[in-house]
UniProtKB/TrEMBL annotation:
<dbReference type="InterPro" id="IPR000435">
    <property type="entry name" value="Tektins"/>
</dbReference>
<keyword id="KW-0175">Coiled coil</keyword>
<keyword id="KW-0282">Flagellum</keyword>
<dbReference type="GO" id="GO:0060294">
    <property type="term" value="P:cilium movement involved in cell motility"/>
</dbReference>
<keyword id="KW-0206">Cytoskeleton</keyword>
<comment type="function">
    <text>Microtubule inner protein (MIP) part of the dynein-decorated doublet microtubules (DMTs) in cilia and flagellar axoneme. Forms filamentous polymers in the walls of ciliary and flagellar microtubules.</text>
</comment>
<keyword id="KW-0966">Cell projection</keyword>
<comment type="subunit">
    <text>Microtubule inner protein component of sperm flagellar doublet microtubules.</text>
</comment>
<dbReference type="GO" id="GO:0005634">
    <property type="term" value="C:nucleus"/>
</dbReference>
<dbReference type="GO" id="GO:0015630">
    <property type="term" value="C:microtubule cytoskeleton"/>
</dbReference>
<keyword id="KW-0969">Cilium</keyword>
<dbReference type="InterPro" id="IPR048256">
    <property type="entry name" value="Tektin-like"/>
</dbReference>
<dbReference type="GO" id="GO:0005930">
    <property type="term" value="C:axoneme"/>
</dbReference>
<feature type="coiled-coil region">
    <location>
        <begin position="27"/>
        <end position="58"/>
    </location>
</feature>
<dbReference type="Pfam" id="PF03148">
    <property type="entry name" value="Tektin"/>
</dbReference>
<dbReference type="GO" id="GO:0060271">
    <property type="term" value="P:cilium assembly"/>
</dbReference>
<keyword id="KW-0963">Cytoplasm</keyword>
Length: 404
């Protein structure tokens, strides 16, 4: 224990001097290293400060350029969106015109079918496949063809409106994304190193690149595709509108032309039916007059036959009486000859008169049959005239063809 607590070791002066010298050299080296570190630190701080400022300036310039690009594409998208929205509204109006045109076909078609149905009620020989019926059937075909064409046009218009709305949707979606991107980039452009909205957590995620990031070329191409698609659909829509305009005008002209042809044929048929009915009535009047004459002739023949019966009976009575003469008095004298001649002649006249009477009766029956036939035919013509002139003509007069 005494050895442990003994006096400390003592050094020699050279050792003491050497130790001091070593301390000087060590301190000088540490100081030199410190000076170099301070100089290097200053250089690094200046370099980092300059680099940060340079990069911030570059980032700000790029942000400004990016905001300018976004605004440019927003203007392009806005313009195209306005055009496609206007085109949709105009196309909807055109669709309404086509629908009205389709609705307007219902009444002419109803009238045409009703006229065909009414004309089927004609009877006897008047149930003829005439020019009016042919034109009515053609009018039905024209209207039904127009209806089918207008229905297909409505389907095409609906499809084009759907395509226009699809283009509008993509433009609007792109615009919303551009607006959000511009808002974010505007926020980034006004940030400073002293801004209170700096986020400490951003340093953990700011250096990572999102997996769904696109290149600037892809970004521009996306908006360009949306604009090109909208322009394509707008051009298709304008072409469809021009087609609809031409179609509405042409279909209205076709229906109107055919309706005019049908009306003209109906008018001519009415005139012809009136002429025929008038001629039949004239013949009927003549037949009636002839019937009256034939009845008078038949009555006169009956009187003539009756008038001849008394002379015949008298001549026959004389012959009968003279046949009772006795013996040689039963002579074939001139009286007997004359009485025989008188009986024969009277019987001959009566036979001829009766033959004439029978022929007159046959002719009277034939005239009566002709009368009945003519009366029936006049009734048929009156019935047909009522259908054509009263029903069909009035129905056709109220048909209005519009070009919507």
């Amino acid at each position: 224990m005494s050895r442990l607590m003994g006096p400390p070791q003592k050094f020699m002066p050279p050792e003491w001097r050497l130790a001091n010298q070593l301390q000087y050299v060590s301190a000088e080296a540490e100081r030199a290293r410190s000076e170099r570190l301070i100089a290097e630190s200053k250089r690094l701080m200046e370099e980092s400060d300059n680099t940060a400022k340079r990069m911030q300036r570059d980032a700000n310039q790029r942000l400004e350029q990016r905001i300018h690009d976004i605004k440019f594409w927003r203007q392009e998208l806005d313009q195209k969106l306005e055009e496609i929205v206007q085109e949709i509204e105009v196309l909807i109006i055109f669709k309404s015109r086509v629908e009205k045109a389709l609705e307007s076909c219902a009444e002419p078609l109803r009238v045409t079918l009703l006229c065909l149905e009414e004309r089927q009620k004609r009877v006897a020989i008047d149930l003829v496949h005439d020019e009016v019926e042919r034109e009515l059937m053609k009018e039905r075909e024209v209207i039904e063809g127009v209806e089918a064409l207008l229905k297909r046009t409505i389907e095409q218009t609906n499809e084009q409106i759907r395509l226009n709305r699809s283009a509008k949707y993509h433009l609007e979606k792109d615009l919303i994304n551009k607006f959000q991107a511009e808002r974010i980039d505007n926020f980034c452009s006004i940030l400073t190193n002293n801004s209170s909205s700096l986020d400490d957590t951003a340093k953990e995620t700011g250096i990572t690149v999102p997996f769904n990031t696109v290149t600037p070329e892809e970004w521009e191409n996306f908006s360009n595709i949306n604009i090109t698609k909208a322009e394509h659909e707008k051009n298709n829509s304008m072409s469809l509108r021009a087609l609809v305009d031409s179609l509405l005008e042409q279909t209205a002209a076709d229906i109107s032309r055919q309706h005019h042809i049908t009306s003209t044929a109906l008018r001519l048929q009415v005139q012809e039916s009136k002429t025929t009915k008038s001629q039949l009535e004239d013949h009927l009047a003549k037949v009636l007059s002839e019937i009256s004459s034939q009845e008078k002739n038949l009555e006169a023949l009956h009187v003539a036959i009756t008038d001849k019966e008394a002379p015949l009976k008298m001549a026959q009575t004389r012959l009968m009486a003279r046949s009772q003469r006795p013996s040689w008095e039963l002579c074939h004298d001139p009286v007997q000859v004359r009485l025989l001649e008188e009986v024969q002649e009277l019987m001959g006249h009566i036979d001829r008169l009766r033959e004439a009477q029978a022929q007159s009766e046959r002719e009277l029956k034939a005239l009566i049959r002709s009368q009945l036939s003519l009366e029936e035919e006049v009734q048929v013509k009156s019935h047909s005239l009522y259908i054509d002139e009263v029903i069909c003509t009035q129905l056709c007069q109220h048909v209005a063809i519009h070009s919507f």
